[in-house]
Amino acid sequence: MTRAISLRDVTKIYPRDVVAVNRLSLDISPGEFVVLLGPSGCGKTTVLRMIAGLEDITSGELLLDGELANAVPPGERQLAMVFQHYALYPNMTGQQNISFPLKIESPGRDTTNQVRETARLLGIEDLLDRLPAQLSGGERQRVAMGRAIVRRPSAFLLDEPLSNLDAKLRTRLRAEIATLTRHLGVTTVYVTHDQAEAMSLGDRVAVMRDGVIQQIGPAREVYQRPENVFVAAFVGTPRINLLRAAVHAPLDGRLNIDFGTQRIQLPQPLSPDHQMLRVQMGREITVGLRSEAARIASPQEMRPTEALLNGVVQHVEFQGHESLVHVSTGAHPARVEGLEAPRPPAARRARGQRAGRKAPLRRLVGRYLSR
Ligand code: ATP
């Protein structure tokens, strides 16, 4: 069984009037994997704890499968929560730790098969006889996951479960968590402040700030169509370039974006994203330009759908499969980062363009964000 979780206009106010969650609404379908993403203190953990029943809801409604659940005791919610600090019992083996929730439920019961099946799912059959002190961080986290899933909960609530692990293990385990929760078909709410983790995991990502969801949607949509500057800047590595600019009235019907020291003319016909610029005419805007949407090219290589921004290459960061090129453009803020693909001519070009030489940056197809 898996459950639908809904929050309706939920607010949490801690003592001293700390508003941790502010009129938040969220509908999570059965079997869905939703990630709550945001900076430290934005209220992610509080949302999870309210769903789990570990924190009272100040106002608003929590519905589990459509039933009001604000007052349902935590133990009756059939939810399993895994925390950042996986508290395993140090004097119990993996087997005993995983079987613990079952033993609490019915003390005399033989749990061997259930524990073995859970251990098989997590690939930890060989570790069941060991004490936590004899396990690595990643192995301990798997045992903690085992303890959470052994009762086959109807939903998982995971609070930064990988943040104690090193980068390599984190990447591996997050793929495993995604596979496991999909295999079990269990509704999952996953809290993280790591945007790369969020983007790789969820069916939907909810970006939070100051107790409010700023945007919720599939990772690709949040990345490509951020609804405001905060979301644009919080999501994506390298960080999006945010350039201040003004939209000018067209003389010849082609819109101009004025970056102060230089202007670009938008290609015609305007794309749907650019259409909204007509209403911004004469106003200051922030242009969001993802690194991969800009590349180094000469004016001769321009296509009709591209716009040219002149700049000077300041620095090239080799990153293996691509290079990050820092370009000063005279726009404000002055520096723009563009990615160079690994094609040999492109790489040669980037190397040749040392500081002081003009390097046109083309294909300015970033999304235009109103301020
Ligand atoms: P982090 O990523 O650092 O865990 P978070 O996004 O999970 O942060 P919360 O832990 O939900 O944020 O905290 C949200 C806000 O509520 C913060 O301002 C925090 O200081 C405050 N807060 C959390 N717990 C309490 C509490 N028990 N009493 C008072 N204020 C609290």
UniProtKB/TrEMBL annotation:
Residues 5-235 form the ABC transporter domain. One of its GO terms (biological process) is carbohydrate transport. Signal peptide: none annotated. Residues 346-365 have a biased composition (Basic residues). One of its GO terms (cellular component) is ATP-binding cassette (ABC) transporter complex, substrate-binding subunit-containing. One of its GO terms (molecular function) is ATP binding. The keyword Transport applies. Keywords: ATP-binding, Nucleotide-binding, Transport. It comes from the Bacteria. This is ATP-binding cassette domain-containing protein. The lineage of its organism: Bacteria, Bacillati, Actinomycetota, Actinomycetes, Kitasatosporales. The chain holds residues 1 to 371 of 451 of the full protein.
